[in-house]
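Thread title: Can someone regenerate the structure for this chain?

I was given the following input by a collaborator and told the matching structure tokens would be attached. They weren't. Posting the sequence so someone can regenerate them.
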Amino acid sequence: MNEDTNNNQAGFWISFELSNVSIMDVKRNEDGDYNIKVRSTLVGTKCGKCGQDIRKFHSNEREISLRDLPIFGCQVFIKMCPIRYKCKRCNSTTTQQLEWYYQRSPNTKRFEEHILLQLINCTIQDVAKKEKVTYDIVEGIIDRHIKKEVDWNEFETLEVLGIDEIANLKGHRQYFAIITARIGQDIKILTVLPDRKKRSVKKFLNKIPHRLKITVHTVCTDMNEGYINAFKEVFKQPDYKINIVIDRFHVAKNYRECVEDLRKIELKRIKQEISEEEFKKLKNVHWALRKKASDLTDAQKEQLEFLFTLSEALCEAYKFMNDLTNIFELRISRNSAKKKINQWKEDVKASSLTCFDKFLRTLTKHLELIINYFVHRHSSGFVEGLNNKLKVIKRCGYGFRNVNNFFRRIFLSLEGYRLYA
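Best answer:
Regenerated them for you:
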């Protein structure tokens, strides 16, 4: 491709890389856009009616204009007149379709892949403005390239499933349930459900092909009864051998909240009993209480020692909290973990503390699923990590009312660089 500038011959070469065409002409319009006229060098096509190879020329269709990748920031348009061939067998006519664009699409395939790459962590509106296309064109590109739901043919195994919810609208109690799979080190989005009801989860799980169901060995979930029962009913024993695990981090959140509630009560009492100057020493003490003893700084250790001299209850609760965390850190069998956790429960009951009462009831109810963690030590960490990414996607899209659109944007964020970079 050559360009004349100020009567001086200046040129540059660009590899065109579109198959089965030859360039007829290159022009720049008054806006600086490149218009590249091409013609097909491929002879013949397949009859759209009977499928036969046909080579009899019928006519040239009207010129089409296809947006292509930019050159030095300038827009590029491919102009061509598609060839129409006539079938001798059925007498029908078929327009030749070249592989580098979709029929009725205003873009080349590589430009559409470029748009999809730009969409990662960005809004449709922003991409449309930057690439000088309409909102509808970007939506059409998403429709052509990204499916509304998971394609099971792309999976050979599922291994570990995780389920969690994400708030759609803060304060409105509207949630999407997200089901993901961890296959080796890869995280795959399987679905976005419009709610977190048992029937919705069960309906989706029943869609998983049997060949993939038998590859699932672990399910990680929180304490939502609907989730747990949906998995139990779909993955019934002895047909499926799965290990349903109540995530250890959801368990930890529960017993740590017990200590947090006690801290608030105790600090209110302490504030009435000591001077304002002394109470300032306890500023931000909640950060120290949330850390393991091994992770504390010297200043935080001193702060906790001062707090515990003022509250024996907090000292005891802090010890129980860390003792339970340490059990989950141990590389022990399921039976050994059960014994240790049951002993921890008895020790708490024998103490004068009441802050753990609600948690003890929860622990008793779900103990069998909680200690399943010690079988393979799987957790919902990969789901929680993905949830942070989903919150960013949701904010970038200013929220999603349509679960299919949300699924597509999640899929694009997870797989986009691998597919289009």
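The CA atoms of residues 332 and 374 lie 7 Å apart.
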